[in-house]
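[audit] Reproducing an earlier prediction to check determinism. Same input, same settings, fresh worker. If the tokens differ from the archived copy the diff job will pick it up downstream; this log only records the rerun itself.
[audit] input (195 residues):
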Amino acid sequence: MRRACGRACATILSSCCGRAKDGGQSHRGHHRHPERQDDGKGGPRGWDAAKRLKGRKRHVAVDTQGRLLGVVVQAADIQDADGLWDLLKRVRPLYPWLRIVFADSIYNRLSALLACFLFGLTLVIVRRVAGSRGFVVQPRRWVVERSLGWLGRWRRLSKDYEELPEVSEAMVTLAMIRLMLHRLVHPNRRRLPAP
């Protein structure tokens, strides 16, 4: 299947990065101390009711080998299909050879279809096999899940430590640059040592 589309394919998925359901700090003060007030410096954050997460979402586009093509970090209250427009706006000019986009079933919305149509891309929704129960590896989704696993080993990306989404996007890019440089220097070693 990889040879059929060659380099002209991308897989897109969103992952969440943020705090737990309570949204509080990891260390609470004394009950007599006042709560911290938001001064607005933390950048945009939101609440995703479906995933029960407060924080941000990373929309990641990778090629068929799992290499990063683009990343967009947005508040969690923005729907995944709506975030696809911003991601394609960054990825499409950089990679004019891109023709097909494989995406999760959450991107099966009118806004995602419209974004792909306007950028001249074909949107292919990867679905679960009918009648399957439990964990099943999906045909194209494992590529981006593996890339997110590689990024999850980077300590600064395990949680949302950054104040601005631009800094978080830069950290994702730096983590993937480190991974690619390690593969160039050590082509026989598959596992990257911890940073």
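[audit] rerun output stored. Observation attached for the diff report: Residues 12 and 61 are 5 Å apart (CA to CA).
[audit] end
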